[in-house]
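re: that chain from earlier
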Amino acid sequence: MLQPLLSLTLGLEAILVVRTLVLIALVPPLVRMLPGAKAPTGPQPAQQIRRPEGHDIALSLGSSWIFALGGAVVIQADAMGLTRLIHDPGARWWLAPLQFVGVLLLQDTIFYGLHRLLHHRLCYRWLHQGHHHSRHPTGWTAFAFDGGEALLQAGFLVGVVFLIPLQGATLLALLLTMSAWAVVNHLDPALQGLAPRSERLGRWLIGPTHHGLHHLRPGRNFGLYFTFWDRICGTAEPSSS
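^ sequence. v structure.
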């Protein structure tokens, strides 16, 4: 049983590394195509070009092993009939968007509370400081987690498939959305041509401006996808609205 688990983990690790490289390459130009964005009109000064720090790359590669192991556990458990994944091609198609939105809302709610806890002085140094090593994040920062935080993040995804009925396509769509949104949130709005007020849905959806301010002012803007928990709990940074 350990040999298949190890093989799956190695394979998923390779997939996750490729995923990270592809998203970091593709997301910025796609973001610049959004309404309201302006592509840079000339070469950017060298001091303005954000390069990933080796610390973020190392943490990202390290935490991907934890996510790969979580994925391997899910695959093996599903093969044993232990998950609630739905493989019936005749399953009601209209459930897929409800499952998709429901899991995003659930993750956003759990993440908000967990994120605030991770910033508590007793947790921050051991579980979350690595992610905040860079005050000006890059795409690599999106996946740069300390080991403990990576376990918590992966634990949510593993728990979902054991507790919530999900179609396989919905799970794949969720994983892609979560990964791409993480990279988007760690872009530099200015370098992507996105002024804070040009993020059209920025009042309700979290983007580079909202989350970038969290890296500059770690006591504000704790949300993951949606801004309503920050608004309800009074942790929204006014300048991110």
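Strands lie at 85-86, 166-167.
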